[in-house]
Amino acid sequence: MTKMIFVNLPVVDLPRAMAFYEALGFVNNPQFTDDTAAAMVWSEAINVMLLTHAKWRSFTDRPIAPAGSSEVMLAISCDSKEMVDRMNEAAAANGGTADINPKQDLGFMYNRNLADPDGHVWEAMWMDMSAMPSE
Length: 135
Fold this sequence. Notes:
CATH superfamily of the largest domain: 2,3-Dihydroxybiphenyl 1,2-Dioxygenase, domain 1
Order of helices and strands: EHEEEHEHEEEE
CATH architecture of the largest domain: Roll
Number of helices: 3
Number of strands: 9
């Protein structure tokens, strides 16, 4: 079996969160979606599970991080610099926030950070390993 990652995120408004992730290029997997959770697929190995707060609380008693706090920054690879830019534009146009940190262009690597409507932070990044400095 291929190793996979399922990133679980608590969300306030499940339909809004699903629409946001679809605008970024994720695809919903209805097999694992209901009124309390939605499986959003990025690749064969990467899935994001959007969970209502009630569903989240069925897995843990730990508090949900308050809005505006920093929990993790999830980096996700893109096929080009243009795709990184499109992802940030889609975030801003669909209830998220683009460029929550300064963008970085190191020549061989380019990234921009965005937040979804619930404040979860993503780093859209592109890298050309062949152009990476040797030192």
